Amino acid sequence: MSLVAGIDSSTQSCKIVVCEADTGTVVREARVPHPDGTEVHPDAWWEALTQASAGLLEGVEAVAVAGQQHGMVTVDDHGEVVRPALLWNDTRSAGAAADLVDELGGAGAWADAVGTVPTASLTAAKLRWFAEHEPAAASRARGVMLPHDWLTWKLSGSERPTTDRGDASGTGYWDPAGNTYRTDLLEHAFGRQLDLPRVASPAEAVGRTPEGALVAPGTGDNMGSALGLGLRPGDAVVSLGTSGTVFAVGDHPSHSPQGAICGFADATGRYLPLVCTLNAARVLDATAAMLGTDLPGLDRLATLAEPGAGGIVLLPYLDGERTPDLPGAAGSLHHLNRDNMRPENIARAAVEGMLLGLADGLAALTDSGVPVERVQLVGGAARSEAVRAAAPTVLGAPVEVPPPAEYVAIGAARQAAWVLAGTGEPPEWNVGEPEFTAQPQEIAGLHERYARVRRDTHGV
Fold first, then answer.
1. Rg of the Cα trace of the chain?
2. Distances (CA, A) of 202 to 159, 166, 215
3. Phi and psi (nearest 5°) for 53?
4. CB distance 280 to 242 below 8 Å
């Protein structure tokens, strides 16, 4: 029995699964937390990976890393990290992103060039902020890479860092349609050229660990999740973690001139159009705290309320927002009155508000021609009974909740198995029967109320 390992280096933690290469059955796993914050020295990721992998990787023949997207890791002439990495959820580069969009002639020009319009999250915007606000440190930078690139480099011992199409497509300077870096956009963002990782083929071995295991190219976390779930055209994923994401697999590049869709590549040679929100599960955490309860308590309250929350609308922009692009926005409650202002309605409005933001993302995908026949609901908040009950109606599509698993890490392990097998396609792994399935129902005025409040409050 051959064993492979997948590493999910996320914002919160390092998770490792060891799987049977032929079937995907998880035989061992471990997790070590990462430091909190929106900037972290990459050494902390390596320390967590080292702790989590201790005694875990015996007999493993191949390994891959799936990491949080967009993070900016800069290194000097000696390969040493220049400054702590700016993570995807660091919004200090919002002004830099707006400048880049204006300088290239608007959102449509960026969408045409690289499929994605810069926001504070993208690496290109972080590079502009770095050059403008820390010029002395920026002058020492020789190369830039993403979190998964840096960890793969450390694991593989390769002389030059590598990346993959999926993660590279989230930088703002790699064109997934043309399969090439746009070094002109990198230079425009940073003011000069930087060394970039080589983009490896999806199933290419990029090195070996000191113990001799093959190292696969790795990918971004959303691409890893798609690979772990075995996503096919017609499927969409709504992921409810720290951030919320909606994505689907396509055979052709996709983007929106307004910037709602990130026209990413996936980890297999296809494409992964994606919409991201900054606010997902933490909306429920914050609302539970406001109501003086915990998450199970919030769940109980929300299930007591009627769909539509008595007309209350919650705009869930508690940490600003990425889609729509409102980095300085705040969350807000609307349409309160003496009849509806009850804890159960507030709880239900939090659930619906979180999902309505993602429903806008799903609509953006379908409006752009991406077929969606089924939604797979994943992430921590997908465990909530209230979320499961509301999701099909709010999202307007049949919903399935697959069995709980570390799908990002499993996707990385599946990529490692693909490299080990040397086949044309990844091995077929069975996800298992869904825990929950439901069809959508109609709630009169729900989406219209949310859209009207969003327009009246933020003009979008």
1. 21
2. 19, 9, 12
3. -90, -10
4. yes
Asked if the model's pLDDT at residue 33 lies above 90, the reply is yes
- 370 is written with which tokens? 């991406």
The answer to whether 305 and 352 are in contact (CB under 8 A) is no
pLDDT bin (cut points 50, 70, 90) of residue 196 is: very high
Q: Write out pLDDT tens, residues 245-266.
A: 999 998 888 878 777 899 999 9
CB 321 within 8 A of CB 362: no
Q: For residues 279 and 240, what is the distance between their CA atoms, to the nearest angstrom?
A: 9
Q: Is 105 left (phi over 0), alpha (psi -120 to 50) or beta?
A: left
Give the mean model confidence (pLDDT) for residues 269-281.
91
Phi, psi of 427 (to 5 degrees): -65, 150
Q: Are 138 and 130 in contact (CB under 8 A)?
A: yes
Q: Which two tokens stand for residue 280?
A: 């997902």
pLDDT at 32: 98
Q: What is the pTM of this model?
A: 0.89
> Above 90 in pLDDT, residue 242?
no
CA angle 37, 352, 375 (to 5 degrees): 85
pLDDT for 131-159, tens place per residue?
999 999 999 999 999 999 999 999 999 99
Distances in Å between the Cα of 455 and the Cα atoms of 271, 276, 315 are 31, 19, 11
Q: What is the mean pLDDT of the chain?
A: 95
Give per-residue burial for 402-413: e unless 16+ CB within 10 Å, then b: beebbbbbbbbb
**How high is the pLDDT of residue 232?**
87
Instruction: State both tokens at 304.
Output: 């007591």
The span from the CA of 209 to the CA of 58, in Å, is 12
Residue 429's closest CA among 417, 438, 446?
417
Active-site annotation holder among 167, 221, 299, 325? 221
221 noted as active-site residue: yes
DSSP lists the bridge partners of residue 63 as 5, 215
